[in-house]
Specification:
two-stranded antiparallel ribbon, 4-stranded mixed β-sheet, Dihydrodipicolinate Reductase, domain 2, alpha+beta, globular, 2 domains
């Protein structure tokens, strides 16, 4: 969307982005809090923003304690994103395959019944420029690498995280270990048309029998779910829940 900024301006088109919950409301709350702190003469030394689309506790009735309120494929594969943030002055980089293992438990003093966990949400450092938490003479955007980006952030801690109910990460890590998020084509997920036709006939005894020999294209693979990730996405979408 950022690449459309100049073309939109040239065309006189207004494009409103990041106007939902995250990103959106979280930005507004962050800036409101920052401005109030600075208006009172305060200095921000740590910025931590946590957000998550959690189902009501009574509706968290599946092993993940989660409901897909957006594209299931996107929600599933988001767990393979790498993350980078700053904590107590040090750069922290998390590889995509280590994201679930990096989750931390969270307890809220005023809501002790909520058993939550936090996952780092991709690149937290990039938001320092937008929030006015970076050095004006040495911005994050101009940094040559992640270490330089962390050094450009004026706050000692800069972290944006995703909230989930406790136990989510361990289950998702298990699914990842089984290869269910793998996006490489797998032959076991390409069913020959002849096998698909036989399965349909077996499931429907009233279907007319045929002795016609398979055509050359009958053994062509079905492209519906060529990867485990697309198969899992279709399974969740069809069932409506996991």
């Amino acid at each position: 969307m950022a690449e459309l900024d100049e073309p939109a301006k040239a065309s006189g088109v207004t494009v409103l982005c990041e106007m939902g919950l995250d990103p959106g409301i979280d930005h507004m709350l962050a800036m409101d809090m920052k401005q109030r702190i600075e208006a009172d003469g305060g200095t921000i030394t740590s910025f931590v923003s946590l957000c998550g689309g959690l189902p009501a506790p009574g509706a968290a009735d599946n092993p993940l304690a989660y409901k897909f309120s957006w594209n299931p494929r996107g929600a599933l594969l988001a767990g393979r994103n790498s993350a980078v943030y700053k904590k107590d002055g040090a750069l922290v980089a998390v590889k995509g395959e280590d994201l679930f293992a990096s989750s931390q438990t969270l307890r809220l003093p005023h809501f002790p019944a909520f058993a939550l966990e936090v996952l780092p949400n991709r690149d937290s450092l990039g938001y320092a420029d937008y929030y006015g938490l970076s050095n004006p003479d040495r911005t994050v955007a101009a940094a040559a690498d992640a270490a330089a980006a962390a050094a450009a952030v004026t706050a000692e801690t800069m972290f944006r995280g995703t909230l989930r109910y406790e136990g989510f990460s361990s289950i998702m890590a298990g699914l990842a270990a089984l290869g269910l998020f793998n996006q490489d084509p797998h032959p076991l997920l390409s069913v020959p048309r002849a096998a698909a036709a036989a399965t349909k006939a077996e499931a429907d005894p009233t279907a007319p029998a045929t002795t016609e020999a398979p055509r050359d294209d009958d053994d062509a693979p079905l492209p519906a779910y060529p990867t485990y990730a697309s198969f899992l996405h279709a399974l969740v979408t069809t069932a409506g829940r996991l």
